[in-house]
């Protein structure tokens, strides 16, 4: 067991974890069980806080939420990061060692030149020949070392390029939602910290979006179809956000867009363009040829100070979205 519990205690916690899954209406899959067991032990405070925050909103713990928090708080991508860091340390260490060797080689050449300049100018032919030989040997040694250094620099450059590719992929795993290609909560927290450092008084507009029929599509056509639809919709939403904005998958069928330094009127205008753009999309199942229902969005806009953390913003925008959906269900605008 991860925490080296006694057999009796471990069995109790295993039983409690299964019961908790039943309470959450989740199947006892390996990932669900791992999250539930971690929650029961109460030793992963960040995971427990995320779960309790979700439950406090009256929202169920769905597959998206469980998998995201499993990656974030249990896997943590630590092993992959450690491997990357080890590789980077090797490259840096190698460059440093060769830099020191190059400096030493240059010092030796300069020292040899200094020590033999007088002999080169001597009238004694033997001293001149001996000095010239020493300078020649020092020069040849220097050239040989520089050649080896150039070869190693070429190798290091190739290694660095390979590491840059790996780091790019690592960033995707750490900061991107694998289904939609949107950012995740970890990326959201990172960007909020950066914006806060740049300007503590900065305001950020938040556009929160929910795809209304996604749950029905999932039930009627299966999760593969609903996943494809969500991915297509996410791509459409992203097309309306330039590099200054941050599109985030904040829930199973929810997308949150953060727009720093954007006023309320502009944010509402962007939200309306997104709504119209998505609702113009038409989808047909390639397998059955059935035309799928038109996608409708629930959209809300709020403003926050960048000092607020990611969980607080998600909680408030989810409540805003719930209020909007309630008004729609009651037939009000």
* Quantity of strands, as a count: 4
- Classified in CATH, the superfamily of the largest domain is Reverse transcriptase/Diguanylate cyclase domain
> What is the distance, rounded to the nearest whole angstrom, between the alpha carbons of the first and last residues?
53 Å
Rg over CA atoms, rounded to whole Å, is: 31 Å
Tally of alpha and pi helices: 11
Tell me the fraction of residues in β-strands, as a range.
5-15%
Principal-axis shape equals: elongated
According to CATH, the fold-level topology of the largest domain is: Alpha-Beta Plaits
Mean pLDDT: 81
Largest sheet: 4 strands, antiparallel
User: H/E order of the elements?
Assistant: HHHHHHHEHHEEHEH
Q: Enumerate the strands of the largest sheet in spatial order, edge to edge or round the barrel.
A: 2-3-1-4
Helical fraction: 55-70%
Number of domains: 3
Report what the structure shows.
With 333 residues, the protein is α+β, with helices and mostly antiparallel strands. The chain has three domains: 7-75, no CATH class; 78-175; 185-329, Reverse transcriptase/Diguanylate cyclase domain (Alpha-Beta Plaits). 67% of the residues lie in helices and 9% in strands. It has helices spanning 7-23, 30-41, 45-56, 63-75, 78-120, 125-175, 185-198, 214-221, 223-238, 264-279, 310-329, and strands at 203-211, 246-249, 254-260, 297-305. It has a four-stranded antiparallel sheet with strand order 2-3-1-4, with helices on both faces. Strand 2 (246-249) and strand 3 form a beta hairpin.
Q: Keyphrases for this structure?
A:
333 residues; alpha+beta; Alpha-Beta Plaits; 3 domains; 11 helices; 4 strands
């Amino acid at each position: 067991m991860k925490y080296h519990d006694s057999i009796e205690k471990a069995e109790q916690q295993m039983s409690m974890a299964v019961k908790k899954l039943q309470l959450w209406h989740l199947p006892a899959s390996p990932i669900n069980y791992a999250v539930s067991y971690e929650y029961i032990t109460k030793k992963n405070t960040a995971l427990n806080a995320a779960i309790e925050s979700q439950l406090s909103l009256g929202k169920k713990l769905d597959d998206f939420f469980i998998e995201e928090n499993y990656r974030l708080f249990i896997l943590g991508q630590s092993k992959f990061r450690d491997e990357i860091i080890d590789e980077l340390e090797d490259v840096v260490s190698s460059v440093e060692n060769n830099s020191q060797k190059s400096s030493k080689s240059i010092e030796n050449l300069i020292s040899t030149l200094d020590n033999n300049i007088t002999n080169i100018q001597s009238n004694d032919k033997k001293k001149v020949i001996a000095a010239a030989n020493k300078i020649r040997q020092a020069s040849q040694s220097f050239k040989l070392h520089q050649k080896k250094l150039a070869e190693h620099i070429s190798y290091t450059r190739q290694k660095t390029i390979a590491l840059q590719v790996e780091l790019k992929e690592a960033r995707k795993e750490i900061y991107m939602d694998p289904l939609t290609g949107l950012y995740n909560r970890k990326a959201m927290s990172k960007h909020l910290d950066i914006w806060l450092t740049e300007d503590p008084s900065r305001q950020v507009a938040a556009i929160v979006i929910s795809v209304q029929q996604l749950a029905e599509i999932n039930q009627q056509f299966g999760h593969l179809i609903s996943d494809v639809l969500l991915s297509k919709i996410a791509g459409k939403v992203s097309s309306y956000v330039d590099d200054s904005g941050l599109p985030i998958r904040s829930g199973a069928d929810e997308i949150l867009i953060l727009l720093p330094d954007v006023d309320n009127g502009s944010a509402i205008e962007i939200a309306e363009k997104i709504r119209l753009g998505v609702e113009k999309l038409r989808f047909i199942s390639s397998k059955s040829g059935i035309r799928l229902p038109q996608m409708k969005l629930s959209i809300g806009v709020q403003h926050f100070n960048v000092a607020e953390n990611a969980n607080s913003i998600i909680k408030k925008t989810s409540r805003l979205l719930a209020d909007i959906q309630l008004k729609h269900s009651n037939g009000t605008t």
